[in-house]
Amino acid sequence: MTRGYSHIVIGAGAIGSAAAYWLARAGAERVLVLEQFEPGHAFGSSGDHSRIIRRAYHRDDYTALTDAMFAAWAEVEERSGLQVYTKTGGIDLAEAGSSGAAEIDQYRRAMDAAGIRYDELTIDDIRTQYPQWNVSEDTIGIHQADGGILDIRRSVSAHVSLAKAAGVEFRSGAVVTGVRVDAHGVSVTTGEESFDGGHLVVAAGSWLGDLMPDLGLSFTLTLSQEQVGYFSSKNLSEFTPDRFPIWIHHSDEVHYGFPVYGEAAVKLARDMRGHFISPSERSFVPDDTEPHLLRDFLRRYLPAADGPLLMSKTCVYDMPVDRDFVLDTLPGHPHVAVFNGAGHAGKFASLVGRILADLLTAGRTEHDISAFSLARPAITDPDFVPVFRLGDG
Fold this sequence. Notes:
The chain is of the alpha+beta class. It has 2 domains: 5-47 and 153-220 and 321-380, 3-Layer(bba) Sandwich (FAD/NAD(P)-binding domain); 90-145 and 222-319, D-Amino Acid Oxidase, subunit A, domain 2 (D-Amino Acid Oxidase, Chain A, domain 2, 2-Layer Sandwich). It has helices at 14-25, 60-63, 66-80, 99-114, 123-129, 152-165, 208-215, 290-301, 349-361, 377-380, and strands spanning 2-10, 31-34, 50-53, 85-87, 90-95, 119-121, 139-144, 148-151, 169-171, 178-181, 186-190, 193-202, 222-231, 246-250, 254-258, 266-271, 276-277, 309-319, 326-330, 333-340. The strands form 3 sheets. Strands 5, 6, 7, 13, 14, 15, 16, 17 and 18 form a 9-stranded mixed sheet that branches. β19 and β20 form a beta hairpin. α1 (14-25) runs parallel beside α6, α1 (14-25) packs across α9 (349-361) and α3 crosses α6 (152-165).
């Protein structure tokens, strides 16, 4: 059976649901979203409760987008009646003179370029304002007031609900098996059905690699299985969102974490632990080693949060070799837009959805997304040296 649509979206996670909403807002009249799992599933990158949202970023390509990012979430909250952003403030910590301190310098430069205010933190400031931290005398940091928690599950619910109310059609259990792109439109096949559309958004996350041959793409997509831990404590009241901010600790490894939110526990993880996998190796069973490593961090730096493991959860980073977004239309096919979030896109999901909708309805976006082009060296050069730590290199 063949049915015609103005726009087809592959994937109904954080990005695909946002694209569907913003397409409807832009006036697209017949939008279809194809999702291989059931609504609200946790198999992609939109599970769990929380993601960090922040203005402090390693490059001004990202920091320059944060005004529009917060504006997009404010509209979604207003229209849905659902709070998705909890403001806690955010801190970045490192030892002076270290590579981590150099990363914080990058954050300063990017925020300076965008005119974003932040505060310097001395060791006395850290110990007075955030007594939960046990850090060395040479620790420095910055505080940015707008940092906080993005409730990623709520964000998907809000986008899907608003999109459905605007007439967008969602189909779950629809595994895309083929895509055909021609000069005038697309045809997407799922099992025994095919759907014709004038435009296509591909927001398939870790499954983008399966569709690359049909899209004429061949860049390397690296998958790393990541894992977060929620830890109980006798002192959880010291870690509520009104008393404890989101945080990133920059050292030989980057750790990040949250106040109590979604579970009666403190959540933390290592960023880019580098457990590289193939798509078929994706596992939803947490390993037993990671909680011990995370508890070691808590014992050293946040001893009041150290306690029994409440739960672990897994997720996957799917990344180009420079760990920057892919946000572009296919060369020669401006009616097909592709996105890959490189393991750090949750905070930008609504804005990215709006940009994708703009590209396919207006043919342009007001935002500078040139750094995320499909024509950049990390995509086109097979000898590009992978750089998976944000701010490294």
